[in-house]
Amino acid sequence: MKALQWQGVNKLAVGDVPDPQLRNPGDIIVKVRRTVTCGSDLHLLGGYIPFMEKGDVLGHEFLGEVVEVGPEVRRHRVGDRVVVSSFISCGKCWFCEQELYSLCDNGNTNPAITETLWGQAPGGCFGYSHAMGGNPGSHAEYIRVPFADVGAFPVPGEVSDERALFASDAAATGWMGADLGGVKPGDVVAVWGAGGVGQMAARAAMLLGAERVIVIDRLDNRLQQVEKYIGAETLNFERTDVALELRERSGGRGPDVCIEAVGMEAAGKGPQYAYDQLKQQLRLQSDRPVAVREAVHACRKGGSVFVLGVYAGFVDKFPLGALMNKGVTMRGAQMHGQRYIPMLLDRMARGELVTEHLATHVMPLAEAPEGYRIFKEKEDNCVRAVFVP
Amino acid sequence: MRISGKALLTAGAAAAGAVTATRIAAARRSSTQAAGRRHVITVNRAFDEAGTGRLPAPLAELGEAVEIRRQPAPGGRGTEISARARSGKVSDGDIRRALREARSELEVGYVLLPGGPTTEPTPLNKPLREATAHGREGGLL
């Protein structure tokens, strides 16, 4: 079959790989109908997460049709249209029982890498390096889905492929940030990043009752999407002082909940950004925490910061003093999609959550390398590139 | 990015990956580096189910080469299973793999197998391939 393969730092190509096979009794094989780029893929593409091998298949956010089921699969049949959580979780371990699905004990076949790096290993993910299990990704014609009864969900007939696709990761991740960040009715919420995840986090905060939601970015086209499709307020950090503006818009208190949806390659301005760039390029720090620093500093006393953006290792100049002395709660996670996807599909069916606008570029899988180039360069106002195998 | 930047990025990524992979390989090979240290997992199964009776196959296969203990985890969080090498016949990596696979068998009923492969060896990814060929043997467990 055809698949998009990582060939080296900033090199992608569509090539031929073996068709996936059922390997465990809980597996299904899915014929991919839609698969989409994610900002976190750029960390892999650019070599910031150094656990890729030449030939790895990218992609973790997808939807498709079941074409084969393993003997222990109970919830799916051939022909079902399913959306699949990007994280691979067994549903049986203690973490899955707590609905902390991305922390699954049994979903990563290479726990040694992340356990060595981080102390404990999270679960596995599709198309997200050998640190996350080395599972072939979804930018392919077919994909094997382990633990399918736990991680694949039937799509209601009234929800289109184009909308349901983003339940796989962006919408679930965004919802998790608002939910576990503790958004309550009446809150002021600030979201750093107006990409797919940031927009979904903002919408989640609104649906959870936040009174004021403010999304921060530098790209006007994305901020316009926030205003038009999400209904939140916006701030362009290149044209205003974010800290002062947030203080003003929150009655001098600071946002109750700050959600960071940017990640390790954060853009910024000024000497702090130059410092982070230099240290990252010299591998003196692995990640650029520009948005996290700003969120901790802006957050109200006793508020919370939730980190949704992907970080791999170590950061410098972290404002621990602000965190401690202001009594801020900081939390982060890879996404616990299985916890939210059914609810998100229901909300999509009711029209409460729209996502189609994120797919600014739709193209055949054969054009995926060009799709990633456009996505990476944010050319032609690209927010997400969707591939149709 | 300029050529020099690209080269720096590639070299940096390869170096970081190689360092981690080397640490993993060293941890896998070392045998009883801290003599008498127990490797422990917690299984999300009640002690009545996982703490008595026959051991899961991955642990049973190690036979007399390891000493195994099972006890209830605090707070009703399942069963703790620990293993320690009796001699140098079993490496720490063997014990880690057996414990992780035993947990999967007890909780899920089987051990997740990797997908693929879709990759090819290169000089740059050699350390990573060596580490992932023994993915359940390294780490801190």
Automatic annotation (TrEMBL), chain A:
<feature type="domain" description="Alcohol dehydrogenase-like N-terminal">
    <location>
        <begin position="25"/>
        <end position="150"/>
    </location>
</feature>
<dbReference type="GO" id="GO:0046872">
    <property type="term" value="F:metal ion binding"/>
</dbReference>
<keyword id="KW-0862">Zinc</keyword>
<dbReference type="InterPro" id="IPR013154">
    <property type="entry name" value="ADH-like_N"/>
</dbReference>
<keyword id="KW-0479">Metal-binding</keyword>
<dbReference type="Pfam" id="PF08240">
    <property type="entry name" value="ADH_N"/>
</dbReference>
<dbReference type="InterPro" id="IPR011032">
    <property type="entry name" value="GroES-like_sf"/>
</dbReference>
<protein>
    <submittedName>
        <fullName>Glutathione-dependent formaldehyde dehydrogenase</fullName>
    </submittedName>
</protein>
<dbReference type="Pfam" id="PF00107">
    <property type="entry name" value="ADH_zinc_N"/>
</dbReference>
<dbReference type="InterPro" id="IPR036291">
    <property type="entry name" value="NAD(P)-bd_dom_sf"/>
</dbReference>
<dbReference type="InterPro" id="IPR013149">
    <property type="entry name" value="ADH-like_C"/>
</dbReference>
<feature type="domain" description="Alcohol dehydrogenase-like C-terminal">
    <location>
        <begin position="196"/>
        <end position="266"/>
    </location>
</feature>
